[in-house]
């Protein structure tokens, strides 16, 4: 039984997870014969039965037990929707550029996992423009939810006394038993594209630009040469986007053009582009492009390995801490801000059960002593980039029942989550009547006032 984290905390985290995977849910909904329906309305937001059932199945699968589990999840979903509705009323907004950054990163992860943009379109049965719009909407909701919670409870802290008091409220027979856990850090360096590869890509586009200026059709050449499979089949056309929905370099170049004009060769995180503006319509614009991606050379991987080996030597000689090296040199955005330490999903703790480690990590750290750092190892990032990394075994804890001495960080995290949840619940109590809430009769008992 899960006891250190409340079901409210769990479902709120799971809600964020589901938003990130909203596309997968919509794809699954298309492939089922079950009729979905609305089970709650909160302001302008809705809760679907499929959303509730999906989260309930995940909660059961992860070992959460409660006599009213589905009702607990329903309340949490209503609370999350209420947060979103109040964000609109209170004009709480998130930075569009951050949404774009998250969008591009997750799209690249999806594409890397499934193989190509074409396969992604086949899986979701919709064009990339719709996939992008759906994911952008989900990410915006997720970030808005996080910002609202931060404004309500972000400044709340817990004292050691409160941590101890929280721990003492857990029945002794309900204390979890932890298997062997490790703290593992990583420093990741993405192999940079060599100057020769970049120049070759640029020259290929310059040659295509000359052909277009000489009279050949941009869309035809895009279909033949563009390495963006999602748009190449459409003559390079991306469809309409608002400002700050595409990477800055692309948008800036496109908006400088008049309809029909073509840009010079420009570089972005995806490679090199030729851009042709098709139409401007108010705050939106439609464009097409030809994308050429420089090839990664093996020599760059070797240079990356040499760089990481020099960092490893500095750490071993006590010239730099692992945490500082990760912050300064790692290309992994998720772990570098945490001293390079890995975590599972949205978990705040860096302690990871060994049976939850990725096999590629487990078989390396299993050979390390606490405090040791591996030699540079080949690695492929979630968005499919060639990289190298070094792994650091910070600690290893044997199996044991939860106690304050060995598990203070976990218990403190759970106590803080519990305290913040109470603050958010108090906020709901004060604000639940400011937004219209309508719940299906079968879930009437799950209203916020229960």
UniProtKB/TrEMBL annotation:
Residues 179-279, 282-392 form the PpiC domain. SUPFAM superfamilies: FKBP-like, Triger factor/SurA peptide-binding domain-like. PANTHER family: CHAPERONE SURA. InterPro entries: OMP_Chaperone_SurA, PPIase_dom_sf, PPIase_PpiC, PPIase_PpiC_CS, Trigger_fact/SurA_dom_sf. This is Peptidyl-prolyl cis-trans isomerase SurA. Pfam families: Rotamase. It comes from Rufibacter quisquiliarum. Keywords: Isomerase, Rotamase, Signal. Residues 1-29 form the signal peptide. The keyword Signal applies. The keyword Signal applies. GO terms for molecular function: peptidyl-prolyl cis-trans isomerase activity. Its EC number is 5.2.1.8.
């Amino acid at each position: 039984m899960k006891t250190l984290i409340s079901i409210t905390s769990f479902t709120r985290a799971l809600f964020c997870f589901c938003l990130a995977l909203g596309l997968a849910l919509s794809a699954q909904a298309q492939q089922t014969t079950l009729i979905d329906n609305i089970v709650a309305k909160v302001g302008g937001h809705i809760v679907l039965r499929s959303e509730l059932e999906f989260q309930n199945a995940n909660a059961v699968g992860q070992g959460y037990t409660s006599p009213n589990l589905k009702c607990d999840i329903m309340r949490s979903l209503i609370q999350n929707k209420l947060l979103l509705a109040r964000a609109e009323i209170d004009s709480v907004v998130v930075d569009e550029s951050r949404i774009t950054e998250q969008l591009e990163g997750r799209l690249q992860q999806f594409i890397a996992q499934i193989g190509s943009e074409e396969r992604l379109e086949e899986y979701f049965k919709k064009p990339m423009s719709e996939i992008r719009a759906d994911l952008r909407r989900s990410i915006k909701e997720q970030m808005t939810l996080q910002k609202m919670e931060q404004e309500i409870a972000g400044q709340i802290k817990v004292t050691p006394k409160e941590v101890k008091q929280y721990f003492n409220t857990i029945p002794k027979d309900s204390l979890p038993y932890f298997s062997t856990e490790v703290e593992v850090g990583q420093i990741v360096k993405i192999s940079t594209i060599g100057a020769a590869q970049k120049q070759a890509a640029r020259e290929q586009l310059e040659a295509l630009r000359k052909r277009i200026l000489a009279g050949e059709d941009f869309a035809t050449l895009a279909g033949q040469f563009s390495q963006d499979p999602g748009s190449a089949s459409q003559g390079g056309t991306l469809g309409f986007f608002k400002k700050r929905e595409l990477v800055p370099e692309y948008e800036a170049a496109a908006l400088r053009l008049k309809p029909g004009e073509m840009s010079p060769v420009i570089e972005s995180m995806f490679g090199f582009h030729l851009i042709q503006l098709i139409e401007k319509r108010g705050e939106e614009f439609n464009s097409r492009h030809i994308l050429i991606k420089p090839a990664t050379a093996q020599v760059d991987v070797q240079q990356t390995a040499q760089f990481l080996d020099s960092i490893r030597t500095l750490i071993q000689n006590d010239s730099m801490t692992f945490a500082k090296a990760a912050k300064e040199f790692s290309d992994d955005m998720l772990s570098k801000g945490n001293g390079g330490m890995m975590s599972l999903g949205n978990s705040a703790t860096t302690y990871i059960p060994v049976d939850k480690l990725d096999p590629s990590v487990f078989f390396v750290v299993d050979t390390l002593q606490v405090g040791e750092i591996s030699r540079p190892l080949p690695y492929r990032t979630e968005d499919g980039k060639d990289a190298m990394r070094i792994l650091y075994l910070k600690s290893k804890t044997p199996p044991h029942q939860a106690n304050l001495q060995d598990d203070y960080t976990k218990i403190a995290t759970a106590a803080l989550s519990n305290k913040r949840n109470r603050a958010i619940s108090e906020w709901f109590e004060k604000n639940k009547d400011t937004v219209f809430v309508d719940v299906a009769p079968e879930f009437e008992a799950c209203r916020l006032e229960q």
